[in-house]
Design goal:
With about 200 residues, this protein is mostly helical. About 75% of the residues lie in helices and about 0% in strands. The termini are far apart.
Length: about 200
């Protein structure tokens, strides 16, 4: 199951790249055609706008899974484990409520605009509003899974604060390994200096 989920998120990463590439090609291509050939791509503005919206929501789903959204852990980090668990549950319940409201609104907008045709592309504008539905459904699933993991005791105490400042952030085990390696290197350098006669 984990392999399927990882594959799905690899597809989402590619989709973000595809949206970004579409935006660059459409906007840059349109500028070149306008100024160089007195022409243009008719669907450029509309497609690039849709690609930007989808890129934003797909990126938000990826960030939700990787816990890279902005957050503040100053207070929660100082709480005991029980306090962290209470805050974890409350924050996830609030986010689940927000995801449900977003899902409801996105569903309504998608249904209303399903038969409305976009001016440039002649596609249904339901695709535009469907990005919000896509985001809210996947976010609800991710948050529900995180909450299940915590309530079933599968989360470690260190994972109760789900904010990561950067991808390079080291966990405690890696930090200890790095400190041990540095100490060994320091001992080696001291012994080599001590054994050298001047």
């Amino acid at each position: 199951m984990a392999r399927i989920v990882d594959s799905f998120f690899r597809i989402l990463n590619f989709a973000v790249f595809a949206c970004l590439a579409t935006m660059v090609i459409m906007v840059f291509g349109n500028v070149v055609l306008r100024y160089g050939f007195n022409s243009g791509i008719t669907v450029s503005e509309e497609l690039s706008r849709w690609a930007f919206v989808w890129l934003t929501f797909i990126g938000a789903v990826i960030a939700m899974r990787e816990h890279t959204h902005l957050g503040m852990d100053t207070l929660v980090a100082k709480l005991p484990v029980f306090g962290k668990k209470v805050c974890f549950v409350l924050s996830h319940l609030i986010m689940l409520g927000c995801a449900l409201m977003f899902m409801s609104g996105s569903w309504d907008q998608t249904m209303v605009n399903l038969n409305v045709v976009a001016a440039g592309t002649k596609l249904s504008t339901g695709w535009f509003y469907g990005s919000g539905l896509f985001f809210s459904v996947l976010t609800f699933i991710i948050l529900s899974y995180n909450l299940y993991e915590m309530l079933s005791g599968k989360l470690k105490d260190g994972e109760l604060i789900q904010i990561r400042e950067s991808e390079e952030e080291l966990d405690d085990d890696k930090l200890e390994e790095l400190q041990q390696e540095m100490e060994q290197e320091l001992k080696k350098s001291k012994s080599s200096v001590g054994g050298t006669k001047i």
